[in-house]
Structures are given as structure tokens and as C-alpha cells.
Amino acid sequence: LGLGEERAKVDRMFGLMDQFLKNDPITLQNDILRHVEYTVARSRFSFDDFEAYQALAHSVRDRLIERWHDTQVHFKRKDPKRIYFLSLEYLMGRFLSNSVINLGIRDQYADALSQLGFEFEVLAEQEGDAALGNGGLARLSACQIDSLATLDYPALGYGLRYQYGLYRQVILDGYQHEQPYYWLNFGNPWEIERIHVTYPVKFYGTVEEEDFNGGKRQVWVPKETVEAVAYDNPIPGYGTRNTITLRLWAAKPSDQNDMESYNTGDYIDAVVNRRTAETISSILYPDDRSHQGKELRLKQQYFFVSASLQDIIRRFKDAHSNFDDFPEKVALQLNDTHPSLAIVEVMRVLIDEEHLSWSRAWDIVCKIFSFTTHTVLPEGLEKIPVDLLESLLPRHLQIIYDINFNFIEKLKKRIGLDYDRLSRMSIVEEGAAKSIRMANLSIVCSHTVNGVSKIHAELLKTRVFKDFYELWPHKFHYKTNGVTQRRWIVVSNPSLCALISKWLGTEAWIRNLDLLAGLQEYATNADLHQEWKMVRKVNKMRLAEYIETMSGVKVSVDAMFDVQIKRIHEYKRQFLNILGIIHRYDCIKNMEKNDRRNVVPRVCIIGGKAAPGYEIAKKIIKLCHAVAEKINNDPDVDDLLKLVFIPDYNVSVAELVIPGADLSQHISTAGHEASGTGSMKFLMNGCLLLATADGSTIEIIEEIGADNMFLFGAKVNEVPVLREKGPALKVPLQFARVVRMVRNGYFGFEDYFKSLCDSVEVGNDFYLLGSDFESYLEAQAAADMAFVDQEKWTQMSILSMAGSGRFSSDRTIEEYAEKTWGIEPCRCPF
Ligand code: F58
């Protein structure tokens, strides 16, 4: 469009804005009641909280849809280069509060509801979490999608619409049990089913050779087809009209399979078989530790990749006819290796379906993919057994072999016949069970490999992907993770949000977190201190109430709330935390009554899920309960020490716990946590950190200074040296004592805890709990000392929050956009 025409069109749209939904209390109330009556189909004179929530959600959704349509129309007209974010996991949590806050209509809704006799907060509690992921990687995707929308980037997130989200953790007698989380049971008002956006996804079959243009070519003759149906979740940005799409695919049976079945006449079997198609997108793999060489998992990955790419290519072809333009319009981000079959699928589509030459297709592939890895451990890297791939995706296996052949041939020319190195770098791992190394495939075919923190990038370059770094140093980068302040302050801590805006005199920090630094100058201001403590106290009271409801334990809000919430893992060292608590308990027990007056009261809070098959992690949960049982019922310690385990930790539990924490623990063995993002959420809520120099903590130290946190433990480079020492490693007496208490049955269940105790015995203590124990206790003692001086503590707390600006996912996404994806904002004009 010419400039004049553009202007005219925008003016006309402005004129039409009269027709957009209004946000005054009367309109909102009418809308909610209309949805009660016509969408929820309840009488508007009689409906309960859940029905009110459903109606409320639908009225918010209407407003989301308006903006979402405008955004899609705008993107289509502008045709900018888009970023397609491919992730098999998203931990979105609840949508309601986040949506109304990003739309800027939370207060209007709260008013409208109160006039109807409902409280916004109470209705918000009715919503179940969208838990379509395991841990940090999945929550990071959710934060990044919020930033992509807020910063007006032309982005689309793709994922899978699992019917069973992350399992529910139920604790019985202190043991974890997993219950299926069929989260769609109560309907999902936040998604829009696109029955007309469907694509066939094919599996199995054979590769045949056929004549083509006077030569030969390979064609895949697949055997089974499943239909992918799009479910769109509008994601609103904050302070912008832009509302982008999170498109999740669900598997449905395809009519294309049915001809044969009818011929056999076995109608019932045919219909029953159709249902197996749906299993592809039915369940989220619950392991956050290792990759499973299972057929269903591979099917999920390809189903996701194939549907997303058909969608992306269709959109490209709507406006372009030459694939050489593809890299100008499309950037594909691989969130870990889980979607990396996309690389192979693009090659297949371009060569087999679009009839491009190998070299043209390869040229395109090398320009469009960027890959981010979220792990440190070589054993965390995904491998797919060749025999699985051969039966499910035979043509893809051929293409992988061809990519590898070309790569190895080139590599030989660069490095000569160093067979050890060649075999380490090969995409194909030879051996009894041949497999495909998905990380190697991703590195070879991506233009950029990103780590998620500074130290992570160092470890990638010097250890995990050393060979590749030496070959292609230019490919390796890092973008330190961040989290969205919209969810982690504005939604979850409204009173802190109001305080920050008041003291900064602006709400601009919600889109530019660096502005928090403006609070540094008030770090010793007495008025701010008073307001700060009030806010913190209210949040602690809310958390104390929750603890009492969940565990029956009454806790004092004057105690220090000390929190460790994250997936349970040996490397995250929840066991170290529990052994520290046992030590504290033991010390109190052995004190003179008078001395107990000097003890700083603590409420230790632990929460997190263990992967269903991860025995040691499950034992850690049981130990936590066994120790809690003893301590919480011991009149000797009374309010000086309490231990509570918060069951079924998820995003909405985190929203409640984080604002109420005084101290939080991020205590992985150095060199194991790629980044860690929980620490950033605590930091921006003014919680102090007790941490090892691992992952993003190292950069947090750069921002807020070591004086404002409690650091301990071996450094990354010391860890291998300590491990080398093996049985000669020095371990403090207190450590041996507390482990012995567990081993000897002081907390009961000695047989059950035996293997847990064995895992930290000298010579066996891979995660170095013993050698870090002394400095851990020192850091804990320093935290106690600081807590006694409440003014000092408050100052540290303000400085923590004020120094958290760098850890906004907005900063991370801007770095990706500029340095990796080459995309520009594309803002809706009104
Ligand atoms: C996490 N990885 C990292 N993986 O552990 C954490 O340090 C980092 O902050 C976060 O990513 C975001 O970058 C992680 O959560 C998984 O959950 C995988 C899921 C699939 C199986 C293997 C683990």
C-alpha cells in the first residue's frame, strides 16, 4: 500500500473502533452475565464461583480475540520476517490474571465483579494450571512468549496440546504418588479450536526409488496418517495491542487410513484403532532428567515438527513463490533438541516435495535454524535409536545419513584423519545400539548455538561441545535467561508492584525492568523500609495461611521463611538442604535452654516434583517428610524451627510462595545448573539468595554484589579437582554426624534411606555434599546474622530487587531478536 492508502485504511479502522468491546463496568457485567447464560448455559440468577470464572474467562477471551485478529491482519499486511519458536514444553500456568493485566483491564473487571457480588481473586483461584511441561525449560518458554508479545515481535510459538499435563503430585505417608492430570476435564476457555487448520502427518512405510527428470530419486511411501488440528492460545503483550499466537497441535484420526479397514469389514476394530491416533498428543513425558528412546516420544516429536512446518510453509507460500526468499521471512528457534527433526523435515520437504536440489535446500537450512541448549551434562543429550527412526521415518534417516556424510567428508579435509575426533563429532553414534545424536545434528545444521548463561557457554565451549567450538567458534553464543516481570511481580505480587510504581513515580518498569535500578538510591530510606516490611509481611501471612491449609503446620510470620522450590534432583541438592536442617535441629536440641533465645527462628519450605522413575529423588521427598514429622512435633524446638513440604509444586504455587520468601536456596553443585531461573523470580521479589556460584547466579553476583547474598561452596573449576580426590576427600565431622542420624534411623525408615545415605558417603559423593557442607553452614549462619538486623536485611532486600533489571526475559528476547534471529518489532498501529 502507498502511504496515503495506508493512512486511509488506518483511519477507517479507527472509525470502526467504536464497535470494539467496551470496558466500563456495565458492559463488563453484561458480558459476564451473557456468557453465564449463553456460553456456560447456567441461569444468570444462579451460578457458582466456577461458572462465574468460566463466564469471566470467556468475556476476557472476547477482548483477546479482537486484538489477536488485528495483530494477525497487521502481520499479514506487513509480511515481516517472523520468528517461529518450536518447543515441546510450555508451563503457562493460569491465563486469567495475566491476560487482564496485560490487557490493562484488571481493575475494571475487579470493580464490575464486586458489583455482581464476586471477588476477582476468588474467581481467579478457580483456574487450573496449564502445565504442559516439566521444569525450567518449559517455564522459560512461557516467559519468552510473554516477552515476544510485549515487545511486538512477529512471533508464533508452536507446541503440543497434551491432554494429560504434568502429573499431580500427591503425598501419602510422606511418599510421592503421581496422579494423571487430565486438565481439559473442565474445558479450556483460553484456547480456540481451529477445525479448518489441520494437516496430515505421516509415519512408517518405505522409501522407494523412482524415475525423475531423466534420473532417479527417493520417495517416501508412508503407511499411516494422523491429522494435526491447531488449537490457538492468544498471548497478549503488555502495553501494546499486539497479541500473538501459541499454536498447540492435537492429534486426531485421519480419514485417509480408513479405506483399507472398511474393506476388511471389521468396522468396530477400525473405529477402535482410530483412537490410537489421539495418544500421540495425549501425554507429556514427565522426565526432566533424561531422554527416552521410546517410539511414542519420537512420534510426538515428528508429529509436532511436521504439522508446524506445513503451517509455516503454507504461510510463506501464500505470499512468496521462490524458496530462496525463505530465510528472509523465516527464523526457526529450536528449544533444545526436542524439535530438531525440523531440520531434517525442511530438507525432505524442499527436496522431495518442492524439488529443490540438495545444495539449494542445504543452503536454506543453514540460514534458518538457531539452537538453544539447556543442559550441561553430556548424559542429558538426546539420542534417538536408529532402528526406531528407520521404522517410523525411513526417509528422514536417509537424509540424516547424507547430512552426516557431507559433514564428515568436509571435516576430514579440515582436521585430517583424527578418527577419535571424527567419531566424537559424527551425528551417528556407532556401537551395539546405533543412534542419532540430536545435539550434533542441531549444531551442524544451525547457524547459532546458544547457551543460557555465561558459565553455561564456557562449559559448552570447553567441555560439552569442545570439538565443535574449535571447528566453528563463531557459532557459539549465550543469552542469559530471564523471566517476565509481568507474571513474577505484577500478577503475583500486586502490593510490591504498587510500591515500586509509587517510589519510581512510573509504571514504565513493567516494560523496562532496568528502571528498577532507580530504587537503589532509596535503599536506606526509612519510609521505604517501613512500606517494604509491610508488603513483605502481608505476603508472608498469605503464605503462612496456605502452609497451614496444606500441611496443618502453624508457622510464625516473624520467623525467616527459607525456601527451596524446584524439581527434585540430586544435583540441585535438596538433600544438602535437609541435612543442614537436621544439623540446625541437632544444635538446638543440644543447646542450653537460655541459649535458645539467640536462635533465629526459621520456617524451612521445600517443594518440587520427582520424576516418576527417579528413586533417589523420591527418597529425598520422603526424608523431608520424616524429618518434618520429628521437628514439627518436638516441643523443644517449638517455633525456632519448622519444616514443611509444599505438595504439587507448580506455577500458581510458585506465584504464592515466592513473594512470601525471605531467603531462597539455589545450591546446585557448581557446573551443573545451566542457568536456573527461579533465583531471578525471588530476586525481583526482594528475597535474598543463598547460593553456589553456578549458572546465572554468577551474573546475579555481578549485578547486586556478593555482599548482598550468601554464597558458598566449591567453584566450577574446583569441582573436578575435588572429585579426583575420591575417598581422600575431607568431610567435616558434622556432616558425618547428620548422615549417621539418618542412616541409624533417627527419623525412622532406615532401610529405605540406606541408598540415599550411601550416595553421599566419602568416595561416592558425586555431588559433593560433604565437601561443601561446612561452607554451606557458614552461609546459613551469615544469613541468620543478617536477619537479626532487620534494617540491614531490608536494605539487602531492596538492593536485590533493584539489581534484578538484567534478568527480565525482555532483555533476553531483544538479544535473540537482534543477534540471532534478525527480526524487527511489528507493532499494531492503534
Ligand atoms: C533447564 N532444563 C535447566 N530441561 O536445567 C535450567 O538450568 C535452565 O534454567 C532451564 O532449563 C532454562 O534454560 C530443563 O528444564 C528439561 O526439563 C528437559 C525436558 C526433557 C527431558 C530432559 C530435560
UniProtKB/TrEMBL annotation:
Catalysed reactions listed for this entry: [(1->4)-alpha-D-glucosyl](n) + phosphate = [(1->4)-alpha-D-glucosyl](n-1) + alpha-D-glucose 1-phosphate
Tree of life domain: Eukaryota
EC number: 2.4.1.1
Claim: Glycosyltransferase is one of the keywords in the record: yes
Alphabetical UniProt keywords: Carbohydrate metabolism, Glycosyltransferase, Pyridoxal phosphate, Transferase
Cofactor: pyridoxal 5'-phosphate
Keyword Transferase in annotation: yes
EC primary class: transferase
Protein purpose: Allosteric enzyme that catalyzes the rate-limiting step in glycogen catabolism, the phosphorolytic cleavage of glycogen to produce glucose-1-phosphate, and plays a central role in maintaining cellular and organismal glucose homeostasis.
Similarity section: Belongs to the glycogen phosphorylase family.
Protein's name according to its UniProt entry: Alpha-1,4 glucan phosphorylase
Source lineage: Eukaryota, Viridiplantae, Streptophyta, Embryophyta, Tracheophyta
